[in-house]
Each structure stands twice: as C-alpha cells, then as structure tokens.
Design a protein that fits this description.
Radius of gyration: 31 Å
Number of domains: 4
Order of helices and strands: HHEHEHEHHEHHEHEHHEHHHHHHHH
CATH class of the largest domain: Alpha Beta
Shape: extended
Distance between the termini: 74 Å
C-alpha cells in the first residue's frame, strides 16, 4: 500500500523508502528500532527467529529465509518487514499483491540473483497482502525462497492455511501477530505527539480525546495515528482550537470536540470499565431475551461504535443462546459459537456483520430457559445432599468381582426395546420420580415435550410396550 506513497520518495542505503515531511503520520512514525515496537513481545524475545532476522548479522544460516506475518490490520506487519531490511542493512524491495503480476515477481527475483552473484547486498522482498496473489504468482516465489535468493517477508490478514499455497507455506516460518492492546496504541499515539518525526510537541491531547481516539481505532495503530493527524490538522489550521484555554502561550490542545469534528464521528458515551459498560450489555441481553431485534441491534451498535471488545460481545451471545433460547431453537447455540469463532478469526470492522447476524438469529428465535432451570434444579438437590446411591443395575460390571456384588443385574439394554427406551429406574431411589427438565411449548421444544411425555411414560411403566425385541 506504500508503493504509491513512496513513488517519488528518496531511499536510504538499504533501499527502503525514506519518509518525507509530507508523508502520513503513520509512515513517519514507523518504528526505527526493535525497542520502539509496541506489542508483539512474543515474536521479539532474544534469540527468537524474527529477532535474529532483524538484528545485524541475522542473515546467517540460523535465521529463516522466509517468514509469513499473519495478523489484523495495524498490528505492525509492514513495520517488521521494514526493520528486517533497515536494521540488518539489506536491500529492500516491496511488492503489493494488489498490483504486481508474475512478471514483476520474476524480475525482482532475477535482479536479486544478479546482485548476489556479483557480491551485492542481499534483498528483502516484502509482499503485502500475499493472500491476494494467485497460485501462479505464489509459485513464482518458490525458487527464490528455496535457494535463498531473497529473504521473503509476506504479510496477510487472512489465515495462511487457506490463502497461501502449501509449498510456499511449508518453506516459510509462520508468525502470528496478536491484536494490539489499548495501552500499546496509547503508547504509539503519545509518542507521535512529542516525537520530532511526528507532531513534535506542536499540540497536546486531552485525556478524553485520547480515550475516544483509542476507541475509534479498535486496536489498529495505523488508524489511530491517521485520526490523530486529522485532529491535529484541524486544530492547527483553526489557530484557536475548540478546546483552547485562552492562554496565548499555551500549546494548542486537542479535545474531545476536536476529534469528533475532525473525523465526523460523535463520541459514544460509554466507559468500558464503568456503569455504561454494564448497563448497555444488560440492555443488550434483555432485548435479545425479550425478542426485540431492533433494540438488540441498537445496543450492539453502541458497543461496536464505542470500541467494545467484540470477543466479549460474542461470549455473551453464546451464553444467551444457551440460557434464553435453549432447546426452543438448538441451532441458535451453533450460530453463536460460529460467530465467536469467526470474530476471533477476522476481527473488526467486518466482525460487526457476524455479530449482527447472530443477534438477529437469537432475538427472533423462540425462547426457552427450561434447560437452564433444569440444571439449576438438579444442582440444588445435589448441593442439598439429595444424591443417593447409583442403582445397582446401572453400576459398572466390567471389573473382577463386580458380578458377585450384583452390579449390572437386571439392567435393560435400551437398544433391545421398542423405540430404544427400556422401562427401568435411572435416578437414585431418593430422587425417583424427580423432574428437572420441563420443556416449553415453543419452537423445537414443543416436539421435545411431546416425545419426552411418551418416554417418561415408558420409563415409569412396569413392562415395556410390546416387550423386548426377540
């Protein structure tokens, strides 16, 4: 994505584009050393493959010749690729999978071979969005990786197991970048305010402006810096910022109103650690339980807009599917679990669509809390000491001496009886006849209710209907 940005930029001795004063803030603030990287500590521990690749002298045989960086947007994939080249002093070439073709790939590889043959610098080939490369384009990379003609650093936001050819994947070291925590992004934002590469102290930030900016960024460092640049530009162009204190000598301050005005996104009054967090999630779950799909989507939107952790929302949907929908629509739990998995896989902002689909399913589904009440009723008996002994005909009869103790005597094998139901007692004597599960007449549970009535009738009878199968 930076090809266009640097099409006329100067380059340093390693061949990496040098950021200009007019470059976007996110480009100017790209970390120049490992120490400036926020997050991803698991990939940069001393002696780790990526650190050996980045540090001077890391091009030796101990370092991998190809790495695939997989992670959400704005987590540092491009930054790490640049550091591999700049810190180790190697030549850097960038290709975008959106615009490059097989011819471009082969040209870069051939040029890298010639340089190596004539004693020139090693080449770091960075392929952004490698999942967009076709099979033939990915195949064109194989010889260069196999023969170490280039050090390939490929970046993708898609699961490489599905988007990268197996031969290339098997020749590469797959490194997974974790989503940045809020404090990681805060560190980068505050550094950009004071660092000479960034805003150089020309503005200051109010705490509520930082908080709103972080919510909007959703863990994407590039997005956070882009928002900061827009807000700073708006304040500095005004001369007198909206949040100014009136002190002529004071540094212009970016307040909440300035961030809202710069990007035309009003701040959602939502404190993820305060009352709003609990009030909104409570209203969200109660709206689903009450089958008001419109209200449920409203509260979902409030949480998404405020930057609530989508994994938290997904977990609550899984609970709601089991507690409030239950057996009235067993597929609701499948939808909720699938949504939680998908949100974890693709992240935001696309995750909002998946969450919305799960919310619509749960809110419009028939509701039953019978299973929830059933397990709680059973637990109440157990905790009250009403447990009893396991009936002898149900006890394990497979170990030596069990038969002499009467274990298994009189047990009726369910598959030998009509309908697969054998008339016998399963509960301990002290609980015989207890009923914990009382299905409703809603949705699929209506069918369960009718079947359960027949089953309980057979279980409680002295003899089966028609006797055992011959």
């Amino acid at each position: 994505m930076f090809d266009d940005l640097f099409s006329t930029a100067t380059t340093d001795t390693a061949g990496t584009p040098a950021a200009r004063a007019s470059s976007p803030l996110a480009v100017r603030m790209r970390p120049a050393s490992i120490d400036e990287i926020a997050g991803q500590e698991h990939l940069l521990e001393p002696g780790s493959p990526l650190r050996r690749l980045i540090e001077p002298g890391g091009a030796g045989r101990a370092a991998p010749s190809s790495v695939i960086l997989w992670g959400p947007p704005g987590t540092g994939k491009t930054t790490l690729a640049y550091l591999v080249a700049t810190v180790s002093g190697r030549r850097f070439v960038e290709l975008s999978a959106v615009t490059a073709g097989v011819k471009d790939v082969r040209q870069v590889v051939e040029d890298a071979r010639r340089r190596l043959a004539t004693g020139g610098d090693e080449t770091v080939l960075f392929v952004d969005e490698v999942h967009r490369f076709s099979k033939s384009q990915q195949d064109a990379l194989l010889p260069s990786v196999e023969n170490r003609w280039v050090t390939l650093v490929a970046a993708t936001t898609e699961n490489p197991s599905f988007s990268v050819n197996s031969p290339l994947l098997s020749r590469s070291l797959l490194l997974t970048l974790k989503p940045l925590e809020t404090e990681h992004v805060r560190e980068l934002v505050l550094r950009a305010v004071t660092d000479e590469r960034g805003l150089g102290g020309s503005v200051d930030l109010d705490d509520d402006a930082v908080d709103h900016l972080l919510r909007l960024s959703g863990g994407d460092a590039r997005k956070a810096l882009t928002i900061l640049e827009a807000a700073a530009g708006a304040v500095l162009s005004d001369g007198v910022p909206a949040s100014s204190t009136g002190d002529d000598d004071a540094v212009p301050r970016i307040g909440l109103a300035d961030v809202e005005r710069a990007i035309d996104v009003a701040a959602v009054r939502y404190d993820r650690d305060g009352d709003q967090h609990y009030d909104v999630i409570s209203a969200f779950i109660k709206s689903i339980r009450g089958s008001d799909v419109d209200a449920a989507l409203h509260y979902l939107a409030r949480m998404v807009a405020a930057g609530e952790d989508p994994r938290f929302i997904a977990r609550r949907l899984v609970i709601s599917a089991a507690e409030d929908v239950g057996m009235a629509d067993p597929s609701a739990l499948q939808t909720a679990v699938a949504a939680a998995t998908a949100v974890q896989l693709i992240g935001m902002p696309e995750g909002r669509i998946i969450l919305a689909e799960a919310v619509v399913h749960l809110a419009t589904a028939p509701k039953s809390n019978a299973a929830y009440l059933g397990i709680d009723a059973a637990l109440a008996d157990v905790r009250a000491g009403r447990v009893g002994t396991v009936p002898s005909h149900l006890r394990d009869a497979h170990y030596a001496g069990a038969k002499q103790l009467g274990h298994g005597d009189g047990y009726r094998y369910a598959h030998d009886w009509p309908h697969g139901v054998a008339p016998q007692q399963y509960l301990p004597d002290v609980l015989a006849g207890s009923r914990y599960y009382d299905p409703s007449d809603r949705g699929y549970e209506r069918q369960v209710s009718e079947r359960l009535e027949r089953i309980r009738g057979i279980l409680g009878s002295d003899e089966p209907h028609g006797g055992p199968k011959p």
